[in-house]
Amino acid sequence: MTRNWNELLQELRVMQTGVQILTGFLLTVPFTDRFTALDDRQRTVYLGLLVGSVLTTCLIVAPVSFHRVLFRKQQRPWLVKASNVCARLGLAALGLVSAAVVLLVFDVVVGTTAAVVASLIVLALFVGLWLGVPLLARR
Questions:
Q1: Confidence grade of residue 139 (pLDDT, cut at 50, 70, 90)
Q2: From its phi and psi, is residue 18 left (phi > 0), alpha (psi between -120 and 50) or beta?
Q3: Which of 40, 117, 130, 139 has its CA 20 to 30 A from that of 108?
Q4: Which pLDDT does position 5 carry in this prediction?
Q5: Where do transmembrane segments lie in this chain (predicted)?
Q6: What range defines the domain where residue 127 resides?
Q7: Three-class SS string for the chain?
Q8: How confident is residue 61, by pLDDT bands cut at 50, 70 and 90?
Q9: Mean confidence (pLDDT) of the chain
Q10: 3 falls in which pLDDT band (50, 70, 90)?
Q11: Is residue 21 within 8 Å of 76, Cβ to Cβ?
């Protein structure tokens, strides 16, 4: 159980850095001159992105809170199971948020059609690498 917990923490550390940088970046966007040029749809996508990024942060940091609250309470099996669920949901959320970032940037730079295509390609890449490859290796 201790080894599982330690491996999970290492994985969460990798995700946490990327998500925190993304969230920090998204928090600065409304304060740029270009933000006023976004149309209503793009602003809605931006707000969804921001909420998704914060939710992703919440999911990947939750195991730290679990551990702190349950420290020395002999709850390691529950801690590992619950943290595994948070890590999986956090990965899924990170993939969705990343694809949505591509959607917003492409929409602003080249238009909606290219944005949807690029976003779907990124989403397919995440699903393929993060889910498909491990499932193939499991066989």
A1: confident
A2: alpha
A3: 130
A4: 85
A5: 12-32, 44-64, 85-106, 112-137
A6: 2-138
A7: CHHHHHHHHHHHHHHHHHHHHHHHHHHHHHHCHHHHHCCHHHHHHHHHHHHHHHHHHHHHHHHHHHHHHHCCCCCHHHHHHHHHHHHHHHHHHHHHHHHHHHHHHHHHHCCHHHHHHHHHHHHHHHHHHHHHHHHHHHC
A8: very high
A9: 94
A10: confident
A11: no
User: Can you tell me whether residue 72 is helix, strand or coil?
Assistant: coil
Q: Is residue 119 a contact partner of residue 106, using CB atoms and an 8 Å limit? A: yes
Best CA proximity match to 63, nearest among 83, 89, 78: 83
What one-character DSSP code corresponds to residue 71?
T
Q: Which two tokens stand for residue 113?
A: 């059609």
73: tokens are 């309470």
122: which 2 tokens? 């990124």
pTM, 2 dp = 0.90
What are the residues whose beta carbons fall under 8 Å from the beta carbon of 118, sequence distance 6 or more? 102, 103, 106
Give the C-alpha separation, 124 to 101, whole Å. 14
Element (H, E) at 50: helix 40-70
